[in-house]
Amino acid sequence: MSLFIEPLDWDQALLQRYDLAGPRYTSYPTAPQFQEAFSETALRNAITRSNNAQRPLSLYFHIPFCESLCYYCGCNKIVTNNKSRARTYLQRMIQELALYVDLFDQYKQVTQLHWGGGTPTFISDEEMSLLMNATRRLFQLADDDSGEFSVEIHPGRVSVKTMAHLRNLGFNRVSMGVQDFDSRVQHAVNRYNTLEQVSELSNALRAQDYKSISMDLIYGLPLQTLASLRETLSKVIDLNPDRLSLFNYAHMPHLFKSQQLIKEQDLPVASAKLDMLHYAIHTLEAAGYRYIGMDHFAKPEDELSRAQDAGKLQRNFQGYSTHGDCDLLAVGVSSISMIDNVYVQNAKELNTYQQKMDMGLLPISKGFTLNAEDQLRRFIINRLICHCRLDFAELKTCFDIDAAHYFSAELAQLAPMQADGLLTINSQGIYVHNKGRLLIRRVCMVFDEYLQKAKQDSSRIRYSKII
């Protein structure tokens, strides 16, 4: 039986022992390693290599505006009711796209596109058309509905009519932030959407022929209990989304000011959060969903499940992805591109972003160029986090190394995990067991060279807990 078909093996004592803080590995090296002294020439050279390799493109647009503040949110957002602010921002994003047109091969196809935020549906239907039409004019989008074109929505603040408009523009996948249906929890985090709203919207999306509906939930929110989560999960399962994300709420008010509005005494204790996660995983698996990894669930016939079965699943700044062959070009404030061996992040402040655009400059604030060692370790972490295994023969073929010798120190660090039954290490490679899948971030941390070097640094970066 495939590892990803089997139910997860829950061992609470081991989970508590290994539940350290660590990165989520949407990239390696992780974003704290990005440097302000980053050369635009490095980006241009990376684009040239991408063109020579004839890799397709994934486009990401960061639309930061929200009409209301969700207290738990750690995203880069701008809360405003002034809808006129969106138009000038969209025009600058189109300007940014235009700056890249001459750099990328005109025949490079865009097979994946995502609008994130913020709340992308903050903008009007007319502005949606403006942005999408400009994208099509500047880049070659897959127009036969074979591309994966997705949009994030707040189900309490979007109309069926707008979703029909987005479908006509070419969007075929939706990710909606449900979070929790309990009214007390919703009030505690200032995020509202009723079961009726989500149900009506889900039915409309299916009638409009959207290919995939994904719902985001959060466990560990204030006033949330196992009983309230049970009710929410029951309702979500009845709604029958194709994919689900179940995120751990990480309370980090020192980083995110909005979280200071949450009363710490209202947060569930760590043991209660573990109970919630255990119940949710068991319930979703019983309902026919597979645990893909790191908070993500999908039906067996979903593209994420099929990509994992085929060994083609990848992970990037949007999470798990079926388009691992793409280079990612991200536009808008704070967005992060991943092209060949470079990461590039745009200015995080809206004014700085807009000033650079008004000067005709690429709005880059920092970046990182991966050396050969970084690329090797990125490959390893991606294999482990997506497929829970590492083939030493593949490392020999791709990087010409003897993994057992090269990573002898790392394998020694994994030995206690092998003794605890989380994984197996043999002459062929590393194989993570079902008991270890929830702790895959802990396994990956062993191969994170920057994290290992920072262990003795008292000012090291603070991460959220793994579980």
TrEMBL record:
Gene Ontology molecular function, alphabetical: 4 iron, 4 sulfur cluster binding; coproporphyrinogen dehydrogenase activity; coproporphyrinogen oxidase activity; metal ion binding
Cofactor(s) listed in the protein's UniProt record: [4Fe-4S] cluster
InterPro entries from the UniProt entry: Coprogen_oxidase_HemN (IPR004558), Coproporphyrinogen-III_oxidase (IPR034505), Elp3/MiaA/NifB-like_rSAM (IPR006638), HemN_C (IPR010723), rSAM (IPR007197), rSAM_horseshoe (IPR023404), rSAM_sf (IPR058240)
A single Gene Ontology CC term: cytoplasm
Binding sites annotated in the UniProt record for [4Fe-4S] cluster: C66, C70, C73
GO biological process, one term: protoporphyrinogen IX biosynthetic process
PROSITE patterns reported for this sequence: RADICAL_SAM (PS51918)
Pathway: Porphyrin-containing compound metabolism; protoporphyrin-IX biosynthesis; protoporphyrinogen-IX from coproporphyrinogen-III (AdoMet route): step 1/1
Quaternary structure and partners: Monomer.
Record protein name field: Coproporphyrinogen-III oxidase
Organism: Cellvibrio mixtus
Lineage: Bacteria, Pseudomonadati, Pseudomonadota, Gammaproteobacteria, Cellvibrionales
